[in-house]
UniProtKB/TrEMBL annotation:
Residues 1-156 form the CNH domain. Transmembrane segments: none annotated. This is CNH domain-containing protein. Pfam families: Vps39_1, zf-Vps39_C.
């Protein structure tokens, strides 16, 4: 075997060849193919592979006895080789390894060709086309009788050609490949939908058709399937078409003429399907075709109607429901595309139209309540007549038609008042697996409150506030206090519109104005305080009347503050007390007038405190409430000693026939007796007060009084001693002398002083007058500033300091204890040493060592 290189001259007159390689071959070669660096040869014994690089060879496989002659075909498009063994074609790669599946022909072919994605084989006057991947025979062409003799087929070298030539003993026939579009069109015209779809999928996978044409064919196939009532497959093809417009399906949903008739493109495609018609007409026509086909089949006539429909004819309702479901599926996907505003309006409106036909309430409400482009005029009559008022209300709300939406919710609240209605969007599971049934009125009020929370139309908000408050006060409060609206409601108008029976709503709104909106309007503060006071009085009276005098137990009383539907978590009395203490803008006199005849003593005490009625406050705290701690705390706030005396007098003489409160008086004396005048206390004490109760307290008061007196004496003596010490030190400083001679120098400029003026600083440095003017009188040569860092000098050793502490025993000890804290301060001005303090009564010294 020789590998030869041919060289052709410029004028094609000269041809030169060069032998590149010589290889040892085998005998009986019948066919040969060169692919890449390999040469595959076929003999009667089998197929072998030769390497052009190494020259080595190997057997791919051998042929069985009695096999037909070997035949090789190079598949240029895939760069593979087809090896024939009788009627079986095996595809191998450049290394002789089998790849993919095998092609099984009807008979052993005389010749093999390649035409795009097909293998062409000829034999006995017939040409057959086999698909390379699927191996199926897609077409058979007869060009002669069976006795025509051996045939040969030739193709274009590119592998993607459109022509194939078939030669017989007497003639040569050329065949042109029909374009894929024409093939699909012909198959569709003949109602061979499965073959057409298979061919379409094949062309799509091989990228042999443009995207625009693919979209066109998918749409055409979809319309044919739609009219054949294969709705799911039809929509699947619609979704694969990138050029099909959603408006093309509008005529199937709504009859012409309609709002969107002019938007429907007049695209007839290949004209293989009837004009668009409503789905009801499509289904009716399809059922008629099925009935006609059944009649013809009984007569022995074949039809193109699906065999499944003939064996089991579907009902009109099932077909129509299936058609609407799939059409809605197409519109749902279309909503995600970029559409023009008018087309989007049609998609959303017709989608809601289809949902209504299927009675898919949840989908209807989801679409209507979300952002949509539905046309209300096309749907309101339809939804109203079909009873889908909730959907219509959601639709009105999404379009900003709040008044109509609220009117519907109000109507629903009245209609649902007699029963319970389960809403999947609002129900939730409770513990134990029980489902919480929410009343229809509650649901209607909830949806209405969502609209009102964002609404700035005050008249409309107040118009619907009443029925929402009757259903759920919490929702009414949310409406009034919403921060979502652009312009807040006028407080005076809201207060006037709130039903007087809805006390909690009234109080919660005022609380929101005061606490959240930081309102400083005294009118609102007073209204809030009066409302709380009135509710507290009523609640207190109910609790008092429910007291069973027999056993002292309280009966169960349903009070709004403690009901499970209450707006507030804290009892009304606690809220009243907190507000009375925290606010200074309400009118305490008006509140006092309201609660004057009640037993709300703590509240009265707070109000009297606001008015500055100290005596009344103390009387309530001490005598009515008997809260000694609160009374003493209030006296501390007053900050005057006479307040404690006034409180003590109240304890000892309560008036109105009440027994003296000796224990409280003793407590007061024990806690604050040191700040009271003992003489006044003794004058105030009642002769009936047991001595053993007050003796310890009075003794402590006297000791404390003496303690303060002695402490004052000590402080006075210490101050006098310090003053004497300072005067002595100043006198010594001023009486100091300095001797200057001819050798004396200025400590700053080091100039001789001579007869010059000079100055001396407290640290004994001497400077001339010139340097003194420069340095100043407070800063010495050494840089010490005597104003910031004063200089202290020890006092003379002979400075006497005497302390006399009068009294005997315990009083002497108290005096010494009072003296000791002052001694460290005194040591600053005294020499280190010992200070002896002698007790005047016992003569025993108290030694105080140096600090």
């Amino acid at each position: 075997m020789f590998l030869i290189e041919l060289r052709v001259g410029k004028n094609d007159n000269e041809v030169h060849f060069t032998v590149l390689k010589e290889m040892q071959c085998i005998d009986g070669v019948k066919t040969i193919v060169w692919i890449n660096d390999s040469i595959i040869v076929g003999t009667v014994n089998g197929y072998s592979l030769f390497s052009c690089v190494t020259g080595q060879s190997g057997v791919i496989f051998t042929l069985p006895d009695g096999s037909s002659l070997p035949l090789l075909k190079l598949l240029r498009k895939e760069k593979k080789v087809l090896l024939l063994v009788d009627n079986v074609g095996i595809v191998v790669d450049a290394h002789g390894q089998p790849v993919g599946g095998s092609l099984v022909f009807r008979k052993g072919p005389d010749s093999v060709g390649e035409l795009a994605s097909y293998v062409v084989v000829v034999r006995d006057g017939k040409m057959e086309l086999y698909h390379k991947k699927s191996g199926s025979c897609v077409q058979t062409v007869t060009f002669g009788s069976e006795g025509v003799g051996p045939c040969i087929v030739a193709d274009e070298e590119s592998g993607n050609g459109t022509l194939a030539a078939v030669a017989t003993l007497t003639k040569v026939i050329c065949y042109r490949r029909v374009p894929p579009e024409e093939q699909i069109k012909d198959l569709l015209r003949k109602k061979n939908l499965k073959e057409a779809i298979s061919l379409l999928e094949e062309l799509e996978s091989n990228d042999e058709m443009s995207n625009e044409m693919l979209s066109f064919v998918h749409a055409q196939v979809g319309f044919l399937l739609l009219f054949d009532m294969h709705f799911e497959e039809a929509v699947n093809h619609f979704l694969q078409s990138e050029t099909m417009q959603p408006s093309e399906v509008f005529p199937f949903i709504m009859r012409d003429p309609n709002r969107w008739s002019l938007l429907v493109p007049r695209n007839r495609y290949w004209g293989l399907h009837p004009p668009p018609a409503p789905l009801e007409d499509v289904v009716d026509d399809g059922l008629m075709a099925i009935q006609r086909a059944i009649f013809l089949k009984k007569a022995g006539v074949d039809t193109t109607v699906n065999e499944t429909f003939l064996l089991n004819p579907p009902s009109r309702a099932d077909l129509l429901e299936l058609a609407i479901e799939n059409m809605s599926r197409y519109l749902e996907v279309s909503r995600e595309k970029e559409l023009t505003p008018s087309v989007r309006e049609g998609v959303d409106t017709l989608l809601l139209y289809l949902y209504r036909a299927l009675n898919r309430v949840s989908d209807m409400e989801k679409l209507a309540s979300s952002g949509n482009s539905c046309i209300v005029e096309e749907l309101e009559t339809l939804l109203d007549e079909s009873g889908h008022l909730r959907t219509l209300a959601f639709l009105y709300a999404s379009k900003g038609i709040s008044s109509k939406a609220l009117a519907i919710w109000h109507t629903l609240a009245r209609n649902y008042s007699s029963g319970l209605w389960k809403d999947p969007a609002l129900e939730h599971e409770l513990s134990g697996g029980n489902t919480n049934m929410i009343s229809g009125r509650e649901i209607a009020a909830t949806e209405a409150s969502k609209i009102l929370e964002e609404l700035s139309d005050q008249d409309l908000v107040l118009q619907h506030l009443g029925w929402i408050a009757d259903v759920n006060p919490v929702l009414a409060v949310q409406v009034l206090t919403s921060e979502k609206r652009v312009n807040q409601l006028l407080p005076n108008e809201v207060i006037a519109a709130i039903d007087p029976k809805q006390v909690e709503i009234f109080q919660r709104y005022l609380q929101w104005l005061i606490e959240d909106q930081d309102s400083c309007d005294a009118q609102f503060h007073t209204l809030y305080a009066l409302s709380l006071a009135k509710s507290t009085v009523e609640t207190f009276e109910v609790e008092s009347t429910s007291q069973d005098p027999g056993d002292g137990r309280l009966e169960e009383t349903k009070i709004s503050d403690f009901g499970r539907n209450s707006i507030f978590q804290r009892p009304v009395r606690e809220r009243l007390q907190i507000f009375l203490q925290s606010s200074d803008l309400y009118d305490p006199e008006e509140v006092l007038d309201l609660i004057e005849g009640s037993e709300l003593w703590l509240e009265k005490a707070i109000l009297y405190r606001k008015l500055g009625q100290e005596t009344l406050v103390l009387q309530i705290l001490a005598l009515k409430l008997e809260d000694s701690e609160a009374a003493e705390h209030y006296c501390a706030e007053i900050g005057r000693p006479d307040a404690y005396m006034q409180l003590l007098d109240m304890y000892l003489d309560p008036q109105n026939g009440k027994e003296p409160m000796f224990n409280a008086a003793v407590r007061l004396l024990h806690n604050h007796g040191e700040s009271l005048d003992p003489l006044q206390v003794l004058e105030t004490l009642s002769p009936d007060m047991p001595l053993q109760l007050a003796s310890d307290t009075i003794l402590r008061m006297l000791r404390a009084r003496l303690h303060h007196h002695l402490q004052g004496q000590i402080m006075r003596n210490l101050s006098h001693a310090l003053d004497v010490d300072a005067k002595l030190a100043r006198m010594e400083e001023r009486s100091r002398h300095v001797q200057i001679n001819d050798e004396s120098l200025c400590d700053s400029s080091h100039a001789r002083l001579g007869t010059k003026l000079f100055a001396m600083y407290p640290d004994d440095t001497v400077v001339c007058y010139k340097c003194f003017r420069r340095l100043g009188e407070s800063t010495s040569v050494r840089g010490r500033d005597f104003k910031q860092d004063p200089l202290f000098k020890p006092a003379p050793p002979s400075l006497p300091l005497s302390f006399w502490v009068g009294g005997r025993g315990e009083l002497s000890r108290i005096g010494v204890e009072t003296l000791l804290p002052w001694l460290p301060s005194a040591f600053i001005f005294l020499e280190a040493g010992r200070l002896t303090v002698s007790c005047h009564g016992t003569g025993r010294p108290f030694d105080v060592t140096e600090g």
